[in-house]
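Chapter review: from sequence to fold.
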Amino acid sequence: MHKKLTVLALSATLLSLQNLQAQDLAVKSLLLTKGKKWDQLANNKKQLQNNVISVRPFTQFTLKIDGSAKKVTGSYDVTSKLKKAGSCIFTIRNKKGEIFNSGIVKKGTPAQNFSVDISSDKELIFTVYDGGEYGNHYDANWIDLKLEGLSGKITAEQNYFPGADEYAPSRAQYFSWINNTNEGPTAVQTKINLDFFKFLHDQYGMILDIYAFDAGAIDGCNFYGMLDSVRFRQQFPKGFGPLVKYAGKMNTRFGIWGGPDGFGTTKKEANERRKMLVKLARDYNFELFKFDLVCGKLDNIDEFINAMQEVREHDPSLILLNHRLPLKHGTKEATTFLYGGKETYIDVHMENAVTAPHHRAGALMRDLPPNLTRLTEDHGTCISSCPDAWDDDLILQAFNRCLILAPEIYGNPWLLKDSDFPKLARIYNLHRRYRTIMTTGMVLPKSYGMYPVARGSKATRLITLRNASWDDKKITVNLSDEIGLTKTNNNIVARVLHPFEETVKSDLKYGDKFEVTIKPFRSLLLLVSAEKDGHGFALEGAKYNVVREVEDKPLKVDIFGKNGEEKTIKISGFNKKFTKATINKIDYSKLLKGENINVSFKSKASKYHEPNFKVAELKSIDYPADSKSLFEATCFAGSSNALEAQAIEKIGWSKIKQVRKAQNAFFNQPLFAERGIWDKNLFDGKMDTCFYAMYRKLHHKPIIPGIFRVDFGKVYDADQIVVKVPDTFSLQPFMNQEGHIAEISEDLKIWTPVRFLADLDSVIKIPAGKKVRYLRMFTEKKQQPLRIAEVELWKNEGMLPRDNFRASNLFRDITDLNFEKAWSCSFELPKNLAPNSKICVAINGKYGDENAYAALKVTDKKGNISYVGANDRAPSFTYNAWEGNPQVPIKGNYTYYFPVTKNLIGKKIEAVVLGVKECKSMRPEVRVVAPEPLIKKQLIIK
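The C-alpha cell string follows.
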C-alpha cells in the first residue's frame, strides 16, 4: 500500500500558487486538517508523502486556474485496512458538466491512470462519491494529480458538501412511516421487516442502501427523546446495535426521523443531544437524518449547525432531509427539501384528479422538480394502500425524477402480490446498474408526451414516458441529440425495460426513428444505447421479464405471448459459464450458442377480446324508482375498512415465509386492532376487538358516521341477529332498552323494518317467513353505537358460520345525499373477455364531494333483476383510516369499479349513475379494462 496524504476535510482557506507547471498539487494546494480523528477511527496511522491526496467518499474540492492548462493527469484507487469492502466513484467536472467519471472502483483494484483535456477550462471540481458498498470508512486516493502545461496560478478550496450534490448517485431507500405511526417502531417488528428485505437481497440480488426509521423511534410528535430513555429501551431493549449488525449483512445502513432541535436550555442538554447524533453516525453508521416540523421547530440554530458539522466529520456522506422546516442560516446543512410538500400515501394524501382505471393516476401525472433538481425529496412511492400500478409509479420516481433517494418506497411493501416481488427487485437492480450515469437529465420535446425525461451518458440513454389517457399512445423516438445521444457509427440497441422488457431493435443507426406504444395510464422505461456491453441479459423476439439475474444462481426469465402466437427468439448478454437452458422444463440449450428457436404460445381458451375498450356514454334519464336499491348495492359492495385491510383482502395472504411474517407483524400490532378499523373484528369472537366509525376530520369537514350495514354473504333462513357492544359507553348515543328500527332484506329490493331494544346484546328478531342477507341498523335516527364488538346470526339456538360476513359504517343514507338526477346506458358484455376484466363507470366532470354514485342493474333472460354494486372506487370510498385522512375536497372525476364475474356475461346490464341537481357538467361513460391477456413460459439458464 502506498503512503499518502490523508485529508478528512480540505481546508476552506484559499491557497494561491504561482507559476506551477506539471507539478504535484497535493501538499502545495491542500492542507491536512482533522486527519488525526480519521486516523483514530480507521486505526490506520499514515506517513505523509507528497504524491497522494487521500479523502473520504463525499469529499469535493475545486481548483481554479488563473491562466491556462492543457491536461489534468493522475491515477486513482481505493484502499482501507477495514474488513468491509469499499468502492468509490471519482469524477471531474467543469462548468458545462462532467468531463471524467471513473465508474465504480472497488477496494483492491490496481491504480488506474487518467488524462483529461482541460485546455478551455478555468475551473475543475474534483468529487469522490461512494460506489454503493456498505459504509464509507475507506480512502479514495487521487495519486500524482498534476496539471500539465499550466501557466499562471491556481487556487484550491474545499466545497461545502452536505452529504450529496446534484451529481451524486442515488441511494435506494425504504422508510417505515405507516408501517408504524407516531407510536414508533419496535426492534421485533424492524427485524421482521429486515428479513423481508434480506429475502429480496438473497433471492433477487436487491440492495437497499438505507432503511430509515420514521416517527417515534427516538423523537416523536412534539417531543424529543434520547437513547437512554425508558421509552426507547422499551421499544429497543438492546439498542440499535444488533439491528445495525444484521442489516449490514445485506449492505444496508439506517436512517432516523426526528426534529432539528432537542438541544434544551443548558449546555449539558445541548452536549447530550449532540453526542447522541454523533453516536448514530460514528458508532451505528447511520446514513440519513430526516428532520420534520411534526417533532418541533428549530430554536437552537447554532447548536444544530455545530452538531451536524461534527456528525459529518465522522460521516461526510450523511444525508439530511428537511421536511417543512425553516432552518434559516442552518439551511446549508440540509441535503434536500420536501418537493411539493406532499406525501404519496394513495387516497390519503394523493388522489386522482381524473377518471382512470386505477387509483394512481394522480401519482403518474406528478410533474417534475424545477430544473430537474435532484436535491429534493418526493416522499418516494407509497406501497400501503391501493397497490395497483405501484410499479408504474416507482419507475417514474426512480428513473424520471431520479432524486438523491431513489428508488424510494415507504409503508408496507409486503402488501404486494407474491408475483410482484421479482419486479420490485428488478426495478431496484436496474436503477443500480445505471445510477452512476443518471445524475443528469434533460426534458424531452412535447411530442414525447407528459413530462418526458432522458437520463444517462452520451452513449446510453434511459427515457421515461407516460400515458395519462384511456387510449393507447404512440410516441416516436428520434435517435439523435434530441434525446441527448451523441452521434456515433455504432449500432444502437433500443429496449423497453418496463412495463414488459422487449427488444425493439438491436441494429438501429444514429438518426433512425421508431415508435413505442404506451398503454393507458401506464409509464414506460426505454433504454437506448450505442454501447455493446453492460446491459445484462436480453431477449429478442418476444416480451419478457427478468425474474432473477444474480451471480452464481440460475437466470430466470418469464417469456410472454398471446394465445395462438409463435415467437422466434434469441438471447444475448448472458453469462458464458451457463451450459443449459430450458423453457417450461424442455431443453433449449442451443439458445446459449446464439441460435434462434421457435416458442409456441397456445392454450385451450379462445382468443380474447381487446382488453381495453369504451362501451358507451350514459344519457340523462328520469330519476329511477329503484334508486335506493341501486345505491344500497354499492354501499354493501364497498368497504369502510382501513386501506391496508382492503389491500390484503384484495391480494390475499402471502405464501412466502418472510413476506407473511411481515404482514402478520403489521396487522397484529396492538394499535391496528385497537383503532377499530377492520370489519373482521366483528366476526372474531372477541369482545375486546371492535369496529367503529372514526371521529376525525375528513379534509374539509368532520366525518359523519353513516348507516351500520352488514352483508351476510348469502341469503339465510335465520331466527335472529345479535349485535354486541362491550359496555354501556360503547352503546352511545343510545341508551339501554330504548326502542329502535333496523331494516333487513334478501335482495336489496324489498326492505322490512324490524323494531328491537338497544342493549349490550341487541337482538333483532327476524319476522316469520322472512329471509335475510342484508342488515341496515339504527336507520331511524341514522346513528350507530360508538363501538360494536360482534355481529352474530342465529338459527335454532345455534350461531351460523361467519366466514363471509362483511360490514361497513361510513356510507350515508340516500336521503341525506339529495340525489335528483340520473344517467343510464344498457349493454351486454362480449363472451370472450380477457381474464380479470372490470367495468369502469367513469363519471367525468366536477360535481362535488360524494355527489355521484354508480351501480349496475342486471336482467337475466327470464327477466329477473338483480343489483350489483361497485366494490371499489377511485378516489376511495370514505374509510376508517390507519393514519391520516384525505387533505383536500374531492371535487369529482370518480371512477367506480365492478369486477366482471360469470353472472354478468350474457345478461342485459344497465349502468346507472345517481347524482345531485348541480351535476350539470357530468359526462359519465362505461369502459372495460383488463391486463393484457398473455401466456407465460419460464426460461431457466444454468
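Two observations follow directly from the output. The longest strand covers residues 59-68. The longest helix spans residues 187-204.
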